[in-house]
Design goal:
The protein has 9 helices and 12 strands. By secondary structure, the chain is an alpha+beta fold. The strands form 3 sheets. The chain has a 5-stranded antiparallel sheet with strand order 2-1-5-4-3, sandwiched between helices. It has a 5-stranded mixed sheet with strand order 7-9-10-12-11, covered by helices on one side. The protein has a two-stranded antiparallel ribbon with strand order 6-8. A hairpin with a 2-residue loop joins strand 3 and strand 4. The longest helix is centred in the first third of the chain and has 69 residues. It starts with a helix and ends with a strand.
């Protein structure tokens, strides 16, 4: 996978984790604070409401006792003298008799445990769900007149207050989480920006742009990292330039003796008829190896020019379909089928004719050398790119070697067994030149299985 994509994916994952981390921590803290706030509020409000209802019940019980003692009235008449709070109800238990301010509540409405405590002379209160609503029941014994006064108070208002508190805390938690996510997004931008610059520069260097450097950083620690990175890039550029110049110089120096050898091989070939069989065989071997040597040298010079940046693009309008047909016809004759997509035939694209020619020529020669010859060449155009694929009839390329075959001097583990000509016909530079030209055009090249899993398919994708 491209290093730029890997770095971009890692950078995006780190940024997402930072944002999610900020939001998650904020939500957990807010949830804990909100839960604690709600529980404390509920406890405080319920205690205050219970104490208020208890005091009111004691006052009302004292009033009932005074009315019954002073005026010698019935418990029902005494209840009529009590001014109950809004929504409250009252019950009086005297012996086996029960008197209520409302027919909605009677003896059976009251909690059994509360009635037992009241009969034992203990004042108590208890929350209970009565008639589908949460209510507070306060029992106040009046031993002097053998009477128990019960007051039933609605907690509906308190429940509404607690509901408002719950809703407010939930909204606050959500709002805090969103705010934390925004803060995380802002902080991640500041944190990730230097990483993004390093990843972008690394991707450019990996793509062949050795001039990529990091700018000045505000932070002292990041500035040291920037200087170290730039020093590393400078050293890498000097090393690659030195190696490229060395390879180019060696290749140029070999041209003169190679020319002499080629001339000598031609002279020997002219005298072949007069030679002994052993001498003629040696002359043929010299001619073959001299031709191979010349080809390797030309490929090394071509790669050296590309490494030194001296091989400039020459963009022109190219009739791609006609060019492909001409190249395939000259190299493969009629043994290879050419399929042009309807959107390719008759159209022209802006590209470098020489590089496209070299790419297709090398792929066809690679198929002839290692894949028993090319069987199908297809050209398609889609979304601003052109794809040229060359299929062969050979055993294919193993998955673990599909990246290595585009490296220099690599012929794969099957070299010497693929095709009829074996490995001696190439130096492993043809596909490296294809990859180099594809990158120069802003494209890429890869290998996959052929149709039906037979052979190999080399695909070149370049901008249209």
């Amino acid at each position: 996978m491209n290093i730029g994509r890997l770095l971009a994916r890692a950078r995006g994952g780190l940024r997402a984790r930072l944002i999610v981390g900020f939001a998650a921590v904020s939500v957990m803290v807010t949830a804990a604070v909100s839960t604690g706030t709600y529980l404390l509020s509920e406890r405080y409000l319920m205690r205050e409401r219970t104490e208020t209802a208890t005091r009111q019940s004691f006052v009302d019980a004292r009033l009932v006792r005074e009315v019954l003692v002073a005026e010698n009235t019935t418990p029902r008449q005494a209840l009529e003298r009590v001014e109950l709070p809004v929504g409250a109800q009252a019950l009086i238990n005297r012996g086996d008799e029960w008197f209520g301010s409302s027919v909605a509540f009677g003896e059976d409405s009251l909690p059994i445990e509360l009635r037992r405590k009241a009969r034992d002379g203990v004042a108590a209160s208890q929350r209970s769900d009565l008639l589908g609503e949460l209510r507070l029941v306060v029992a106040t014994p009046v031993p002097s007149i053998d009477l128990v006064y019960y007051e039933i108070v609605s907690l509906d208002e308190l429940e509404r207050t607690l509901a408002v508190i719950r809703s407010s805390l939930m909204v606050a938690a959500v709002g805090t989480g969103l705010a934390a996510a925004l803060v995380g997004w802002w902080a991640s931008r500041r944190i990730i920006r230097p990483v993004a610059e390093v990843s972008a520069a690394s991707a450019r260097i990996a793509g062949g742009d050795l001039t990529a450097r990091l700018g000045r950083q505000r932070d002292a620690q990041l500035q040291r990292v920037s200087r170290s990175f730039n020093a590393m890039a400078d050293a890498l550029q000097r090393r690659i330039d030195r190696d490229a110049r060395f390879a180019s110089d060696v290749s140029h120096e070999l041209r003169s003796p190679l020319t002499t050898l080629a001339t000598a091989a031609d002279v020997l070939a002219g005298e072949r008829e007069s030679m002994t069989p052993r001498a003629a065989e040696a002359a043929d071997l010299i001619a073959t190896e001299t031709t191979r040597f010349r080809r390797v040298l030309e490929e090394l010079l071509e790669l050296g020019r590309a490494d030194a940046g001296a091989d400039l693009l020459e963009i022109e309008d190219v009739p791609l379909g006609e060019l492909v047909l001409a190249i395939v016809g000259s190299i493969s004759g009629g043994d290879c089928v050419v399929e042009l997509a309807p959107n390719v035939a008759g159209t022209r694209i802006a590209t470098d004719r020489r590089r496209v020619t070299r790419i297709l020529t090398n792929l066809l020669e690679n198929a002839r050398t290692y894949g028993l010859g090319a069987s199908l060449v297809t050209v398609d155009r889609d979304l601003g790119v052109v794809r040229i694929s060359v299929e062969d009839k050979g055993p294919g390329v193993p998955i673990d070697q599909r990246d290595a075959v585009f490296e220099r001097f690599s012929r794969g583990a099957t070299a010497g067994r693929r095709g009829s000509e074996g490995s001696a016909s190439g130096a492993g530079l043809g596909l490296a030149i294809v990859a180099e030209h594809a990158r120069s055009l802003g494209g890429r090249v890869w290998v996959e299985d052929g149709a039906g899993g037979v052979g190999a398919r080399f695909v070149v994708e370049i901008p249209a």
